[in-house]
Structure formats: structure tokens, C-alpha cells
Design goal:
- With 413 residues, the protein is mostly beta strands.
- It has no helices and 34 strands.
- The protein has a domain of 119 residues: Thrombin, subunit H.
- A hairpin with a 4-residue loop joins β9 and β10.
């Protein structure tokens, strides 16, 4: 294992108050939309080049790492017996990648996951003082940053399909969790101090034969109203965070197995609709009730993503389809500026930093593209073996989780 001390850099974040420079506390980072304001992130690496450290991680998990101060947190599932899983949370130090503690939070007796999924796919979330982890229907928990379990709950019961997926988010004194199984779909707000259900709202798209989804909610403010944007099978919903009551919804007919996290920019919410006929919708979030026919401003059908989340940089929207077609569109109108085949397959959500877009392939290769209306490829870098987890940023370095290791990638000084 390599060790290198890097100087801290200053990260300016404009999201619900300021956070320390190193903090990356939720899926897709501050604000949850895949942006980093860090400069001097690396553009070249390999299994040996610009590796600050690499730490083996036992078991399998596709949760993305998060950073709180000088600590990194992630989850994993370690097989036990013929069908069981030990569902664990890990803490590593940022300087050397040393595992500081590892805690079993739940035991899973049985269950199957899709070959592109795991039993530990939801990314943890932190408020800087506590850590919240979620393993789908198998349980949700709050831990201290030193690994003490504060509370657990296995109250959120539904029939999982292909394993777990969507990550929880924090809103005020609530932990918001989407639960979209094969038998029922709902969203709930848990008291972050106790884990008790404060509110629970059932989804209304009951006409579908395939009802499962894996999307992570997003908190926005539009028209002076705070809204939780949450996708299920067949529809995207807007809820009031204080009580879970519905503000508006948009139906997308037969969409299911929705994975991408929504993004919000230019007064529009951008959502992908899942399988079997994927679309990308741009929605005006100022409506009330069923706004399917009135508030969808434009639709993209060619090369819409099934798994990677969208990314907005300036006036442009960038997406990559699971089969490797990257697109740049005008975010306000949906006009396509370019579409290019990057090759390979994609599940991780892209990252924006310093005018660059980092698209991470399932085989461990990252394709770097200039954020511009004209397509320019800037480079390719490869780690082994495969990866489905999304980037985290730590100072002027990346955290990249592969099937076997957690890497800290940064220019050696």
C-alpha cells in the first residue's frame, strides 16, 4: 500500500450552507448532482500510476464511498454459508486507506441480487456527526462515526427484486428512504434520532405489472416550495418533506427498474424512466396534481440512460446510455449538440470537475470528455477489475471502488 500526504485544497460549495473541503457526504456528492469544484483532479492513472493507496475490501458492494473529515465510509456484503450475507459498514482513514473499524449491522438469511447489483448497493449518508446506512428491506441503521450502532430498524418491509439499490437522503431531522419492491412501492421519512417512521406515503402507480425501482431521491426548491423528487416504477413524484404529502406527479407508463438519480437545473427536473423503452424527461416542477400532460417540457428517446444519472454543466445536459452512447443536449430545449459512442457499458453516474466529465465504464475504464457543445475526448484510464460504484472526491483526488479494492487516485507530489 502506498502512502502520500497531499496538501488540502479549498472547495467552494453552494448547497444548504458550506461543508468542509474534504467532505463528500452522500451519493453524487454535495447537492447530490455529481459536481465537484475541486481543481487539479487527476487526468491520468492506472493500477500503478498515481495510486496514493489501494485497500482490499472484503465481500461485494456497489455502494459508493463517502467522506466525512478524515474518514471514508462504505458498505459491503460478505457471504456467509450457502445463501446468507453479513451486511457490514467500514470506516477507513483518508491518509493511508487503513481500515479503522468494520461493523456487522445486519445479517441477511437469503436473497438474490442481479449480476450487476449487490447486497450492499445503497450509498451511506452523513450529517457530519452520524452515519446512516441502508440495506433495502433488510434494514436501515444509524451509527456514530466511531462505529457504535445508535439504532436499527427492519420495519420497512417489501419484496425486493434484484437486490437493493436506492440510497437514503437527509432532509431536516428526517432520513428519507424510497422503498420500491415487486409487491408494493412507498417512500418514508424516518426520524433520524430514533429510526421511527414519521410518515409513509404509498405510490399511486398501481397499474403496473413490474413495480420495482432503485432511484435515490433529490431535494429541490422550486416556486418557493421545497420538494422531494422521488422516482418509482411508472411515475416520478414530488412530495412535501415535512409530511410526505404529494405535490405533483408525472406518469411514464411502463417504465420500471428506475436507477438514475434525478437532477435539477434551469427550473427543470430531469428524470430517466427505466426499462423497457427508456426516455429522459424534462419536467417543470411548479405544478400540482397529475401534470403528465402539462409540465413535461421535452423528451429524449434516443440513447437515454437506464442506469447512469444525468449531469448538467452550465446550459448543457450530459448523459451516457448503458451501452456507451454519450450525448450532449441543450438543457432547456433538449436540442442535441452531439452523440458519440464511447464503447463499453456503463452503470456508474458521471462526474463533472474543472470543465471535464468523467464517465466510468463497468470494466474499470474511465473516459474523460470535455464539457462542451463540441465533442472532445481528453483521455482514458483503466483500473482492474470491474466497477459499478460512482466516484467520490477527496481533496484533489478520486476515490474509486472496484470489485476488489478501494483506490485513492491522485497526482503524486
Amino acid at each position: 500500500m502506498l502512502q502520500l500526504r497531499l496538501p488540502a485544497c479549498i472547495l467552494f460549495i453552494f448547497i444548504c450552507g458550506s461543508l468542509p473541503a474534504a467532505d463528500w457526504r452522500e451519493f453524487r456528492g454535495p447537492g447530490g448532482q455529481g459536481h465537484s469544484a475541486v481543481t487539479e483532479l487527476p487526468v491520468e492513472w492506472s493500477d500503478e500510476k498515481n495510486v496514493i493507496w489501494a485497500t482490499p475490501v472484503e465481500g461485494l458492494g456497489w455502494s459508493s464511498p463517502i467522506v466525512v473529515g478524515d474518514r471514508i465510509f462504505l458498505t459491503t456484503a460478505v457471504p456467509e454459508g450457502a445463501t446468507g450475507q453479513s451486511l457490514r459498514t467500514l470506516c477507513l482513514d483518508t491518509a493511508a486507506g487503513k481500515i479503522l473499524w468494520e461493523k456487522e449491522v445486519f445479517q441477511q438469511a437469503s436473497g438474490k441480487a442481479h449480476n450487476k447489483n449487490s447486497h450492499a448497493s445503497p450509498t451511506p449518508v452523513s450529517d457530519g456527526e452520524k452515519l446512516f446506512v441502508h440495506f433495502g428491506t433488510h434494514g436501515t441503521a444509524c451509527l456514530t462515526l466511531d462505529g457504535k450502532i445508535e439504532w436499527t430498524t427492519s420495519e420497512l418491509k417489501y419484496a425486493p427484486v434484484h437486490g437493493n439499490g436506492g440510497s437514503p437522503i437527509l432532509v431536516d431531522d428526517l432520513l428519507i428512504v424510497s422503498c420500491d419492491g415487486g409487491d408494493k412501492e412507498f417512500i418514508t421519512g424516518l426520524d433520524r434520532k430514533t429510526g421511527k417512521v414519521r410518515w409513509l406515503t404509498d405510490r399511486t402507480a398501481t397499474h403496473l405489472t413490474r413495480k420495482f425501482a432503485f432511484s435515490t431521491p433529490l431535494l429541490i426548491e422550486a416556486g418557493g416550495i421545497r420538494q422531494i423528487i422521488s422516482q418509482g416504477a411508472g411515475a416520478v413524484y414530488s412530495y412535501r418533506p415535512e409530511d410526505g404529502s404529494l405535490i405533483w406527479k408525472v406518469d411514464y407508463a411502463d417504465g420500471y427498474s428506475v436507477v438514475p438519480r434525478p437532477v435539477f437545473a434551469h427550473g427543470l427536473v430531469f428524470v430517466a424512466t427505466g426499462y423497457d423503452r427508456p426516455k429522459l424527461l424534462a419536467i417543470d416542477p411548479t405544478g400540482n396534481g397529475d401534470v403528465t400532460s402539462s409540465h413535461v417540457k421535452w423528451t429524449m428517446t434516443k440513447a437515454a440512460p437506464l442506469t447512469p444519472s444525468p449531469l448538467v454543466i452550465g446550459d448543457e445536459l450530459y448523459v451516457v446510455s448503458d451501452n456507451g452512447i454519450a450525448s450532449c443536449l441543450d438543457a432547456r430545449t433538449g436540442t442535441v449538440h452531439w452523440q458519440e459512442r464511447l464503447a463499453g457499458t456503463y452503470s456508474a453516474s458521471p462526474l463533472a470537475a474543472e470543465g471535464r466529465i468523467y464517465f466510468q465504464r463497468e470494466d474499470g475504464e474511465t473516459v474523460i470528455v470535455k464539457a462542451d457543445r463540441t465533442f472532445t475526448e481528453l483521455g482514458r484510464n483503466r483500473l482492474e477489475p470491474r466497477t459499478f460504484a460512482s466516484f467520490a472526491v477527496l481533496d484533489d483526488s478520486f476515490l474509486i471502488r472496484t470489485e476488489k479494492n478501494l483506490y485513492r487516485i491522485g497526482a503524486r507530489r
